[in-house]
């Protein structure tokens, strides 16, 4: 390819007199331009359409179509607006020159032509032409990029970028259409249980391929008219069009859950996945709004997750009311924490060997300004879900330690206070510092504090649990496993944990008189605890018979309604000093 030829500028000379063309050709001979000639306006326009022209030298005075008219025609055409035009005229009055500029000319030169002036003006206009072409190319490139990006954005609006399934927006548009047409439908909203573990264990690339495998497998369960949508990380939604009956929808639900019953093979990895699902089966009495319907499906999905893995829940209108109550409860609990509405109740713990008071267990209660005393079963779970259990738990700990110190200063020495730690508190990074701060503030001896943890903590992260327990033990703080026997740990598993005390769950105590096998389990817990150097506490003692059996088994400590119910600080003081 001749590179030089590509760089030669092309100039169109428009003049009705051929002699003028010869003059210009001679003056520009040494400049290496490609010259084209047109004797009239129509021929010039044809030349423009056929050849790429970089500059036009246009005679002003021509028959039929003069230079001004031709200049106006050229400049009105967007394709040629960037081609510079130099008007060549013997008329050099201000009026003539003004007419040339108004017609769209970029420059002008007078006759007779001067070679130096002509070459200079041509070079100047070609530089402008070159700059214009560069700007135009840049503009075209930008427009192409904008168009491509617009297409990408449109795709993102309507489709999921990974799976190519319908997006949330696309699904809502389909729902709007169904509502407008008054057609029946069902909405199946599901996500994978703990899908983040797949990304954590195998990486996001394999996680993406797992999502594609889910798309392919679930698609086999759908009808031709059903809409399969994907939004978020692992949120999927199926819009079942015109289901024949609720039984038809149930069949599809069963097929989808069955699709997850066998493993997914992704990149040589065998992965088992389960899903939770919320289902909306539309009836005339429910929402007629697409956003609200999708929200209903999401609400049902959240309810399904509360039931555990591999479960679905059909949406019921009362779910919204219960969710609203839960939100209100969370707001009230935040307010309760700020207004110091949480109180500490104290249940006596008895030394069964000496038949005397050993200490108290501190229990949280909520004195609601309108509803009165609220039982812990109604708010503790919400405290944990909102993480308010961390500040509330430290507040209970401080009040309990402070109260025990008050009783000690009043002459009741040697008592111990037991305080429960939720799993969320136990995993809190500042737990040890927070407890240390409370002990320093209340001036309570660490040996008078016993922290009760749940049995499930011993199996969730045993190594970390052991480290934390050892840190407390090194400070002189005692640690007890609460409700022992109801969790997942085995009796032999206990030897790994340096705890001081086991608290036998009330479920075993309640059945001591009814079930002999229960008695054997309780005896095994007591014997193993003693073998490991742990003391044993029985909770939930309600009868004299239970007490006697526990004494015979060797339980050192006990608590329950047989001795006293949890009581306010005032009642506990009366109990202590009676």
Throw out a few tags for this protein:
Rossmann fold; 22 helices; TIM Barrel; 3 domains; alpha/beta; 578 residues
Short description:
With 578 residues, this protein is an alpha/beta fold.
Question: What report would you give on this structure?
Answer:
With 578 residues, this protein is α/β, with parallel strands linked by helices. The protein folds into three domains: 3-138, 3-Layer(aba) Sandwich (Rossmann fold); 168-316, 2-Layer Sandwich (Alpha-Beta Plaits); 326-577, TIM Barrel (Alpha-Beta Barrel), CATH 3.20.20. The strands form four sheets. It has an eight-stranded mixed beta barrel with strand order 13-14-16-17-18-19-20-21. The protein has a five-stranded parallel sheet with strand order 2-1-3-4-5, sandwiched between helices. A five-stranded mixed sheet has the order 7-8-6-11-12, with helices on both faces. A hairpin with a 3-residue loop joins strand 7 (227-231) and strand 8 (235-241). It is elongated and about 135 Å long.
